[in-house]
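ARCHIVE CARD
CATEGORY: sequence design from structure
SOURCE FIELD: tokenized fold
FIELD CONTENT:
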């Protein structure tokens, strides 16, 4: 069997999202709006398969064919008859549920490959003897032939997502390196093109020069259409001795279905802002224009306190090894009014709280643009995973001048982060009951502060295309050097493009640090309803959770490549290092032996020193993070951040050795079962599923009732068209056009 790092355990936690009451309260038109937005999100989410690994679309198509022909109970009878044990069949169900949840065969949280936890030859017998194979022997056999080896392969380069020798990615062709990614980013910056909706494919021309195709996601391909903004960009360029060609049409048939449902949703929009927002999204996905998506995002920001909230597009850049390309995601949710009232109070206090942050006023935005901040019950979240909270849009220019929105995903928080006492690791016994009682409430506080005042704070110093600065060069002083500002962002440069590979993690670390720092403020705790001893317990558990998370983060570090695979977890490890460095016994991490005789560890946080030792240390660190970010000082930022992110075996913590202990005792991230909506006549029905791997599979089997086979054909056709850019899969499966 495979190393446990690369399998999903058969007893993995599975929870169902509960949004029944919030959906029940929607008016008929609101339900129709939510339904069509959900359909658009689910269709678009299929693009993630093409953004993950060469084999992911084939695996998805194969599994979908299997379970459409036989539901999990029916296939179980066949599997047992073919010689699988109950445990092996359950392992296969968990693998399938994992592929659906992550939209591919790599974990969305950690970017590690996972493989089926059963013998390959047994799974082959089940697949080739299934009803799906009886009905379509060539197609099913061809799919298995194409993806079977890769489904199980743990060749070193295939174990993690990455670029070049570090891993596999389909954001770039297999022959691209980090140097190619940097050159492409420079090219994109020179043409004022965003990387968010692109992929990069490299070939060597007859003259021996590299030729790069920058392919934009769009319904339309390269034929001339009367849309001058994009047409002027679709051509060949010579740049720094290399040839670049900008094309479009990536994921075209998938985005066509997204656009069709956005058009239908527009008919049920509640406001003109929603209509204009959807019109711009349609423009963006049709033509490949990020500028249109920005315009849509402006209308989205202006659409205050909608009953049905949503966002869709190429959004988060965590999984691009270079940190610039956005993964497709779309969500639809309904407002949770009780928790939203607390967030509204936090927003009302934000301008005052921003003054508490440890950097000079010149490093804060000129004007705090009051955002929407709501707690939402998720109906649909399509993509590779579901976060606890979101602060969007990610476009720096909009965030600095137009604002943003914050959302906390209440029904996700309720199930994804619940903890059983017997599964709690690395805590002292006397902390466990307190941790279980206050983890949820303290996480609400942390998410609120992280999203609103973490991601929502701080100014970037920019010189625009006309040479004008958004700060006073004469009077603004760098508090770290005592000198005038020496560096800034030029026109076309963004936080992601300048800080690239560390941008996501650095920003998550800054936001997490703001949350820890401001949760010490009594006003914040009062907003969330905590006073006295309860308030102190919330603070203690919030800090304790961060310290423990810093240790758990070691699961996501790869010693062979000296690299981190998950931005949020790297950020939490950095914070742990900062607090350990503060000394005076504030935090200790001690290797121990567990009651089972195996290696263990314990984290200790001295609650009496959080304010006297922890706060000053965090203050110094936060100020440095913000100053380096504001000034665009990439060299300084990398030196600071990568220094803290280094994992060594230096005593007393010996983190490399502790990593083995963390892997030994890790708990798999839960799988989340989401409902479907179905249009019956003019009414929208909510379809819910049991909290199990089989329930999750059923939810996907019923997700595309009208066009499932067509979608599978589209996915495999698109994957096959680009297969030459990776060594495998290189052949078209039989029966696939």
């Amino acid at each position: 069997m495979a190393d446990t790092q690369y399998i999903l355990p058969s007893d993995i936690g599975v929870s169902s999202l509960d949004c029944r009451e919030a959906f029940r309260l929607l008016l008929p038109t609101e339900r129709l709006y939510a339904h069509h937005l959900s359909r658009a999100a689910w269709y678009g989410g299929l693009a993630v398969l093409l953004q993950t690994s060469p084999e992911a679309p084939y695996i998805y198509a194969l599994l979908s064919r299997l379970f459409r022909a036989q539901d999990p109970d029916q296939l179980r009878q066949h599997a047992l008859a073919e010689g699988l044990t109950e445990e092996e069949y359950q392992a296969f169900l968990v693998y399938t549920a994992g592929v659906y949840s992550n939209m591919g065969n790599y974990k969305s949280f950690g970017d590690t490959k996972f493989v089926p936890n059963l013998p390959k030859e047994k799974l082959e017998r089940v697949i080739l003897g299934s009803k799906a194979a009886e009905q379509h022997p060539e197609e099913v056999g061809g799919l298995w032939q194409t993806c079977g080896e890769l489904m199980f392969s743990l060749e070193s380069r295939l174990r993690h997502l990455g670029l070049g020798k570090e891993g596999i990615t389909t954001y770039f062709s297999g022959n691209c390196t980090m140097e190619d990614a940097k050159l492409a980013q420079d090219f994109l910056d020179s043409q004022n093109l965003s990387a968010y909706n692109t992929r990069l494919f490299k070939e060597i021309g007859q003259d021996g020069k590299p030729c790069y195709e920058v392919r934009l996601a769009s319904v339309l391909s390269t034929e001339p259409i009367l849309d001058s903004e994009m047409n002027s960009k679709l051509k060949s360029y010579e740049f720094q001795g290399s040839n670049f060609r900008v094309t479009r049409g990536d994921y075209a048939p998938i985005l066509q279905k997204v656009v069709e449902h956005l058009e239908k949703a527009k008919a049920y929009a509640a406001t003109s802002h929603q209509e204009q927002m959807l019109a711009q999204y349609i423009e963006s996905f049709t033509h490949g224009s990020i500028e249109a998506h920005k315009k849509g995002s402006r209308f989205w920001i202006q659409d205050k306190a909608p009953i049905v909230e949503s966002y869709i597009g190429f959004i988060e850049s965590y999984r691009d090894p270079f940190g610039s390309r956005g993964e497709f995601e779309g969500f639809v949710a309904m407002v949770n009014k009780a928790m939203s009232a607390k967030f509204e109070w936090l927003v009302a206090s934000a301008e005052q709280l921003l003054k508490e942050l440890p950097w000079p006023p010149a490093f804060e935005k000129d004007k705090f643009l009051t955002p929407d901040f709501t707690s939402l019950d998720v109906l649909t979240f399509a993509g590779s995973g579901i976060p606890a909270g979101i602060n969007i849009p990610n476009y720096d220019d909009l965030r600095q001048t137009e604002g943003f929105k914050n959302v906390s995903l209440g029904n996700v928080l309720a199930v994804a982060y619940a903890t059983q006492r017997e599964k709690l690791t690395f805590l002292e016994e006397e902390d466990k009951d307190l941790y279980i009682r206050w983890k949820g409430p303290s996480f609400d506080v942390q998410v609120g502060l992280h999203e609103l005042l973490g991601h929502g704070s701080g100014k970037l110093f920019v010189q625009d295309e006309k040479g004008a600065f958004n700060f006073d060069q004469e009077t603004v002083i760098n508090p770290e050097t005592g000198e005038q500002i020496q560096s800034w962002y030029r026109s076309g440069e963004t936080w992601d493009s300048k800080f690239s590979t560390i941008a996501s993690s650095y920003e998550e670390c800054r936001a997490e640090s703001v949350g820890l720092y401001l949760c010490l403020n009594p006003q914040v705790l009062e907003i969330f309803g905590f006073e006295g001893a309860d308030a102190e317990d919330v603070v203690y558990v919030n800090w304790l959770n961060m310290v423990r998370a810093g240790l758990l983060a070691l699961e996501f570090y790869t010693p062979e490549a000296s690299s981190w695979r998950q931005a949020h977890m790297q950020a939490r490890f950095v914070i742990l290092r900062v607090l350990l460095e503060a000394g005076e016994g504030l935090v200790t991490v001690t290797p121990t032996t567990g009651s089972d005789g195996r290696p263990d560890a314990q984290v200790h946080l001295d609650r009496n020193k959080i304010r006297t030792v922890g706060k000053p240390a965090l203050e110094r660190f936060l100020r440095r993070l913000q100053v380096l970010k504001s000034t665009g000082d990439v060299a300084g930022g990398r030196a600071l951040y990568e220094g803290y992110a280094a994992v060594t075996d230096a005593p007393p913590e010996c983190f490399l050795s502790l990593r083995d202990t963390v892997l030994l005792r890790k708990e798999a991230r839960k799988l989340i079962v989401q409902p479907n909506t179905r249009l019956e006549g003019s009414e929208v029905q909510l379809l819910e599923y049991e909290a199990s791997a089989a329930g999750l599979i059923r939810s996907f089997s019923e997700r595309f009732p009208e066009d499932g086979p067509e979608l599978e054909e589209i996915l495999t056709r698109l994957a096959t068209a680009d297969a030459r850019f990776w060594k495998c899969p290189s052949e078209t499966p039989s029966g696939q056009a």
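CARD ANNOTATION: The chain is about 45% helix and 15% strand. The two ends are 35 Å apart (CA to CA).
SHELF: design records, drawer C
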